[in-house]
Design a protein that fits this description.
Largest sheet: none
Distance between the termini: 49 Å
Structural class: mainly alpha
Radius of gyration: 18 Å
CATH superfamily of the largest domain: AhpD-like
CATH architecture of the largest domain: Up-down Bundle
Number of strands: 0
């Protein structure tokens, strides 16, 4: 059960309702996830929503790869609702179901495309070390430029904030659904394994060949 009231539209103050209506009129189409708690601070909720809309819908990283970075973040923080929502979004964006299932189980996916391995490793390292190795940074920058490497970093940071908010306020799954994530090891954050040596070697070969 959530730790904080999650008001319906009818229960909201005038300020809260104005933010609610703005969110509903935007690309989300509804007030869901962390915004259900953040609405208690209407000014924060408005700014949060606008940043989130840009990062989710308008950055230069392709949709399936954005969802991959979000799922890595959700798995790192064991955020049940974030993974639940973005599993469906990732499938709709064209991310392979076996990649999503590997992430759900806390395993390194078997990537078919080098750009998937690059985004996975960038997101994984950033989550687990607070930075990324030079070659990982360079691969993302080479593919999407300065804008891409900045936006991917911001995406991972934003969805870390989302995960923390969902977790700390215990925002429930829709209809009390079954949590998709199981503990991988211990009680702390999940550590995803590095992509296999063969995958990383293939990625490096294709990058060097200009593919």
């Amino acid at each position: 059960m959530q730790r904080i009231p999650l008001p319906t539209a009818a229960e909201m103050t005038q300020e809260q309702r104005a933010v609610h209506d703005e969110v509903v009129a935007g690309p989300r189409g509804r007030l869901i996830g962390p915004l259900r708690a953040v609405i208690h601070s209407p000014d924060l909720a408005r700014r949060w929503s606008r940043l989130g809309e840009y990062l989710r819908y308008d950055i230069c990283i392709p949709p399936a790869l954005k969802e991959l970075a979000i799922l890595v973040t959700a798995r790192r923080w064991n955020s049940q609702l974030e993974f639940h929502i973005h599993r469906d979004a990732a499938l709709a964006a064209g991310l392979d179901a076996d990649v999503i299932e590997a992430l759900r189980l806390g395993r390194a996916p078997a990537f078919r495309e080098p750009e998937q391995a690059e985004v996975f490793e960038f997101s994984r390292q950033l989550q687990q070390t607070g930075t990324v190795a030079d070659d990982v940074y360079a691969a993302v920058r080479r593919r999407w430029g300065d804008q891409g490497v900045v936006e991917l970093t911001a995406l991972v940071g934003y969805y870390t904030m989302v995960s923390m908010t969902l977790n700390v306020h215990e925002i429930p799954l829709p209809d009390e659904g079954e949590p998709p994530l199981k503990p991988v090891a211990g009680d702390g954050l999940t550590e995803l394994p590095q992509a296999t040596a063969a995958q990383l070697a293939r990625k490096a070969t294709m990058v060097a060949a200009g593919e």
